[in-house]
Amino acid sequence: MSYNPHYTLPATGFVRLPQILFHIPVSRTTWLTGVRTGKYPAAVKLGPNLTAWRAEDIHELISSFSGNEFGPKKNIRKERTENVQRPA
Which CATH number fits domain 10-83: 2.40.50, 1.20.120, 1.10.1660, 2.60.450? Predict the structure, then answer.
């Protein structure tokens, strides 16, 4: 993977949504719902058509995640089939 400065998070300043979603693997809808509910940091309106987030807030959010926050999910189908009793 080559270096792309667009997807690096600056230490300070503002970042746009594509940069955030590159580092936090959730959908756009999930992110915006989380912002609305307070799970994720609030956005800053920089203009009528320009929304960004403080880079410091995003760094703090990333550092607050546990190691398995975005890890692979359990295989629910496998668990369900293991618990099913089959007729003898």
Answer: 1.10.1660
